[in-house]
């Protein structure tokens, strides 16, 4: 009780509450505008949050992260354009419902399912926190090294059909983390005798380039795209009642979201895929999926909104980010010398609980805002895409330049912007670079400290958690190879039957 | 022959125009880094392998070369898609906007954040063909809002313009702090 009161007092400050409101309302608006997304917004806001208290900065970023997917459902349902990438599955059933004249019902269900998913994940976290607090101290250097290695492997194998590309980009991220002065021996690595490379490549500069500047360039160079107009009429509160009829789908989908959010490198897409497949297989009306099924819509939205809360678990408990957005948040911790990991749960549990409470408040604020302001948001999403590019480019400058007033940083960010544009055009993943950068640094430090106490290779995995992590890593690799071989056989059989050329690869 | 065909099938993958150009460039970059390892990293004496400064760059670059080679082979084995050079042209077009961005970066410490931002957004509106009165007005409002929020309210570190030094006393202090 004392702990909760301490957490509440942490939240009950005007700057924390302001960050919560600005973050959640801003996140909805950013999510609703196709072509922006939470990653762009967080990348831009990140340097500005460094001057805030950690709780204020994290609340603001969590607000954007947790609420953007709510907003992303609006254009997905009404104009068949997902506001954020993870809302793509929402278009499958949301837009057909709109075409049938059920736009307000689809939106209402999407909001309600998102709210359910968000709240479900936070409740899971509150229940899991004490368990985490017990397990986390058993994570020493070798366990954290293995968990980081597992994160890298998962992010690579999770990109089915692009494993080689994800692998090379993750390794590129690890390479970027090694540039500059080596922290133990202070020798230069890949500086090419250039003074501006001695301090290394800043994560924020790379993030801003790959996410924000690349998106601005893409919008500026590409053809103008005017999002279609839409309007919604009817009572948006009805979905809250209707959701109870589909509580099984909502609960299972949210559980998938929590589970996938907790596993580094997996995230929303896998959670959505599993939830959607489950909902379709157990539905009384599976043929309606893809043609306007409320269950499909609920599965998609509940699963993706359950992820942000759960993604905070590996970040807070082990200091290991599971995807790009939590990797960005990690830098907020580092700037304020708050080291996420076992000691955070032992020494600052009130801070952790305050973050969870902030997530609850954020979901409530977002739901109220959406139920009252959807009409206004429909006007905002009409911003011409090239003008949006101008806005993102202007804001990117603040993000990069305010770090240390360096023109070189801006040039590096612009270089990564072009690189990100190429990756986006080729549909190659960006996230492995960021995770490679963050996890690569963690692996280097942890391997060095872990090996100092290891005599033989087997000693490395002689503790229970280390052994479990090692077995899980082996299992992931074996299962992936098996899946690739199986898919390849199926493809060959299909091609023999149809003599058509497939272009998919495991 | 059948085995070669099976291998080719195994590496086939989904891709977009320009993929092979990227795959070639990335592989060449990775191989270049590989050749630079001895000169750009140090192998320290009396230091175990896990603490060697060369270890992690080698692991990373080794992985880059391995995966980039596989990616390149995948690109070679897959069906050719037309539009490769048109796509490369698209990538190159982005350099024009990168140049504008860098000019903006260089202008800020000279003419100040607000004037530079106004000039940048208005110029880009004209350049992208969106110079309607509504958009130009929106660009002005947006520029002022960004400067007020980030420089005046959030106090982010953006240097004051040299040009502000020439302003009259009353306005100069205000401009140096908030604009």
Automatic annotation (TrEMBL), chain A:
InterPro entries: DUF112_TM. This is DUF112 domain-containing protein. The keyword Transmembrane helix applies. It comes from the Bacteria. It comes from Roseibium aggregatum (strain ATCC 25650 / DSM 13394 / JCM 20685 / NBRC 16684 / NCIMB 2208 / IAM 12614 / B1). Keywords: Membrane, Transmembrane, Transmembrane helix. Residues 17-435 form the DUF112 domain. The chain crosses the membrane at residues 28-48, 55-79, 109-132, 144-176, 196-221, 315-339, 351-371, 383-400, 428-445, 465-485.
